[in-house]
UniProtKB/TrEMBL annotation:
PROSITE patterns given in the database record: TAT (PS51318)
Database matches in Pfam families: MoCoBD_1, MoCoBD_2
Tree of life domain: Bacteria
SUPFAM superfamilies: Molybdenum cofactor-binding domain (SSF56003)
UniProt name for this protein: Isoquinoline 1-oxidoreductase beta subunit
Length: 715
């Protein structure tokens, strides 16, 4: 379904209302943007409303309009605004806002876009508030604003040294018209941007006062769990709740459904006055499912379908001719399906009344939820209130619309607030999942030890409506198309390339997963580029650099070689490299491995990111470390398989997460330059798996072309 796109596109510059003696300031910039859930490219511009509130005591509240799932918006957005507002983070309190598209603008958290898409607007919010406070002080002193400046939450008169705290100026500043234009600081003048400040949410998450979705409670709230079809699209044919109703506290048992793209997935809800009662009642529920009308696929059948679809491509004659002119090789790479497996399982509270809906929970895309509920339940959008809590991980899964909608339907049926809880088994077996993928790679090098021809064809499951009615692959053309995650200079320096993808048909629900596209494509691309380097008898890092013409890419390679001491390594000692690009940032990783009998040990990971202008280096390091750990798990620990249309791995005993003793030493470095900001939350993931597998080849001479594989039994 399409969501309404006219949520807000008006151009205005306005001052918000005054509450008591608090100054609340906000700006709204119109632009070309997307509010339909698409990943937005770095060179697109979007819109933003952000708010600052200053009370009479000078305490500054910055309202965070984005979800916080560990990626650091709770720190970065206030840190940006505070820089231009001239206050320290010790003077700042951070608070969530509810979704309000006409007041705050779009509020998604996707595509690592929170900073790269909004940083300049955030800076202007802080700078405009500062200038209003300076103007208010200048009027009190009877001087020109140019004679005044702001620092540390005060306005200072340069000549006399007089000072007025922001709290003493809020009444007067609230009456002023916000400036139409403001001058922003030069980077060299920053006091807090670029500094490794402690995160504002760290204390609350440590002492247990932070409110995640699972922590939120409402008066009179009921609890619900849902028995779901183990075959995704199964319908409820019949259920027997006679034993369920004998459990004390169980209120009702009824059929419910949730939307997954263009399908409705059915289940049976057990609602009780406690979570324990609901879960015990569910154990006694008997459901007969109608599993007709869709395929019940095994993993082996899916893999065979991918292989068959790859063989349907017709390669351009010009590319085939170029391939014959070079020294050529080919390889096939395979990536598995993956669960999101956030540490906090899905959950949501809904309170649906006759003319209003209110939601609380770990919502990654609040504005999409608001629009979806308004449209589907026929409630005016201004009557749908979505409250964000902290998220215990998101990775794209908590950007989906199904679980809030399901909670809303259950609340509507019960005429009471209801918290719907997903068990770990629900979360891991019901999907949607990251699609597996199969890649056929062919390529050749010329006498100059450079890539002359490169073809990468992929078969995977696309997400969205009609996934089980996928089209046939289109005829390929030379030097068209692309593959996610690779450095853009390859499109310029490889004379002949051919990229193509085909969507396989499958009823299994799939969707985005951290660094979508790049998290699978880059594995095949960067491993195969390493194979081409070996074919050319070239140093793998130097081979890559030879294809980079952009100085920014070359600087990344040089820095990566320096921090890892790459040029001092010996031959066949277990060094691997991969360099990827996605969401406006470039990441290079070097992995060092060693061998102990049949065990491969990851000794160290060097990670270098060029994300341009950045806010907090500690947050960047944390995101790259977390991305590498997640990539490690997906490479060697876990995968999702299917038998007769059912998920095999349903909990962490069969889908193991990396343990602390499995995590290698990770050394993170950040490039310093004057480039525009790129993403941080996702770009650190794609490079790890190919760098690891390339390191294993360097050590053992064996190529790893299928994930996951075992480090503890590498024969």
């Amino acid at each position: 379904m399409e969501h309404k796109k006219d949520l807000s596109r008006r151009a205005f510059l306005q001052q918000a209302g005054l509450s008591g003696i608090a100054l609340t300031i906000g700006y709204y910039w119109p632009a070309i943007g997307k509010s339909t859930g698409e990943i937005v490219r770095a060179d697109d511009v979007t819109e933003l409303m952000s708010w600052i509130s200053i009370d009479s005591a000078g305490k500054v509240t910055i309202f965070n309009h984005r979800s916080e799932m560990g990626q650091g918006t709770w720190q970065a957005i206030p840190q940006i605004i505070a820089e231009e507002l001239e206050v320290s983070m010790d003077q700042v309190r951070v608070q969530y806002v509810t979704v309000h598209p006409t007041k705050y603008g779009p509020q998604p958290a996707d595509g690592s876009f929170s900073i790269r898409g909004w940083y300049e607007q955030l800076l202007r919010v802080g700078a405009s508030a500062r200038e209003m406070l300076i103007e208010a002080a200048a009027k009190q002193w009877g001087v020109h604003p140019s004679e005044c400046y702001a620092e540390n939450g005060e306005v200072v008169h340069r000549v006399t040294g007089k000072r007025l705290p922001y709290g003493a100026l809020v009444k007067d500043a609230a009456q002023l018209k916000p400036p139409a234009d403001v001058k922003l600081k030069a980077r060299k003048d920053y006091k807090i941007i670029g500094k490794p400040l402690h995160r504002h949410d760290a204390g609350a998450k440590t002492n247990g006062t932070a409110v995640f979705g699972l922590d939120k409670k409402l008066p009179g709230m009921l609890y619900a769990v849902v028995e779901r079809s183990p075959r995704f699209r199964g319908k409820v044919k019949h259920f027997d709740d006679s034993a369920v109703t004998s459990i004390k506290g169980v209120k009702r048992v009824f059929k419910v459904r949730r939307p997954v793209f263009d399908s409705w997935y059915e289940g049976v809800a057990v609602v009780a006055d406690s979570l324990w009662a609901a879960m015990q009642g569910r154990k006694l529920l008997k459901v007969e499912w109608d599993d007709t009308g869709f395929e019940h696929l095994d993993s082996a059948q899916i893999a065979a379908r991918m292989q068959a679809d790859l063989n349907k491509f017709s390669s351009p004659d010009s590319f085939e001719a170029a391939l014959k002119q070079s020294s050529a090789i080919e390889a096939v790479y395979e990536m598995p399906y993956q669960s999101h497996s956030c540490m906090e399982p899905l959950n949501c509270i809904a309170d649906v009344k006759d003319d209003s809906i209110e939601i609380w929970g770990p919502i990654q895309e609040a504005i999409w939820v608001q629009a979806d509920l308004s449209e589907r339940l026929h409630v005016p959008i201004e009557k749908v209130k979505v409250n964000m809590t902290f998220l215990g991980g998101g990775f794209g899964r908590k950007a989906f619309l199904d679980y809030p909608h399901e909670a809303a339907l259950i609340s509507k049926e019960m005429k009471a607030p209801v918290q719907v809880m997903w068990t770990r088994e629900d979360d891991m077996s019901a999907g949607p999942f990251r699609s597996g993928a199969l890649y056929k790679c062919r390529g050749g090098v010329d006498t100059q030890k450079k890539i002359f021809a490169l073809q990468i064809l992929s078969a995977a499951q696309y997400f969205g409506p009609g996934a089980d009615k996928a089209p046939e692959p289109q005829a390929l053309k030379e030097n068209t198309g692309g593959i996610a995650g690779i450095i853009y200079d390859y499109y310029k320096t490889i004379p002949h390339y051919s990229f193509g993808s085909v969507a396989i048909k499958s009823p299994i629900p799939t969707m985005w997963w951290r660094a979508p596209g790049a998290n699978t494509d880059a594995f095949a691309a960067e491993c195969f580029i390493d194979e081409l380097a070996h074919l050319a008898l070239a140093d793998p890092l130097a081979f890559r650099r030879a294809h980079f013409t952009f100085p920014r890419y070359q600087a990344l390679v040089d820095k990566l070689a320096a921090i890892s001491n790459w040029n001092a390594r010996g031959k066949h000692q277990g060094w691997g490299v991969a360099i990827t690009e996605c969401f406006g940032s470039m990441v290079g990783q070097v992995v060092k491995v060693s061998r102990q009998d049949a065990q491969i040990k990851i000794d160290k990971v060097f990670a270098l990111i060029d994300c341009g202008w950045y806010v907090n280096p500690d947050t960047i390091r944390a995101q790259l470390e977390g991305s590498i750990v997640m990539a490690l798990g997906a490479a060697v620990n876990h995968a999702t398989h299917f038998e007769q249309g059912r998920t095999v791995e349903r909990n962490f005993h069969s889908y193991p997460m990396p343990r602390m003793n499995e995590i290698p030493v990770i050394e993170v470095h950040i490039m310093e330059n004057e480039e525009k900001p790129g993403g941080v939350g996702e770009p650190g993931l794609p490079a790890f798996a190919p760098a690891l597998c390339n390191a294993i080849f360097d050590l053992t001479g064996k190529r790893v072309r299928k994930l996951p594989f075992r480090l503890d039994n590498f024969l």
